[in-house]
Amino acid sequence: MKLPQNTDEEREIQRTAMAAAIEETIQVPLSVLKILNTSTWDALIQLAAVGNINCKSDLQVGARCLEAGAWGAYYNVKINLSNISDESVRDNYLKEADDLLEQAKQSCSKVLDAVNKREN
């Protein structure tokens, strides 16, 4: 960041601003993972079980797209963790992201399994 660093106070302001920016680079993709897992998969799983079977490929593609979105958000979190110096904070974020990605993978599998069990 291009903030003045001539005094101790200015350096502290710069460190605080950097920490906030780093936090945001993790919180934004982490929130994408949370939203995916709380508001999208249930509807897709229900559609896969009882929706129009002629939409089978649409549901399959939709599930894979959501999974890809989760994968991308996960790796955005992961790459930005290298900017956090506190190992315990880093580990907590990584565990949360790991868990959320695993949820997305399992939900994707549920959709695909439900659709594949149905006949055209």
Automatic annotation (TrEMBL):
This is Cyclodeaminase/cyclohydrolase domain-containing protein. It comes from Cherax quadricarinatus. InterPro entries: Cyclodeamin/CycHdrlase, Formintransfe-cycloase-like_sf. SUPFAM superfamilies: Methenyltetrahydrofolate cyclohydrolase-like. The lineage of its organism: Eukaryota, Metazoa, Ecdysozoa, Arthropoda, Crustacea. It comes from the Eukaryota. GO terms for molecular function: catalytic activity. Residues 1-98 form the Cyclodeaminase/cyclohydrolase domain.
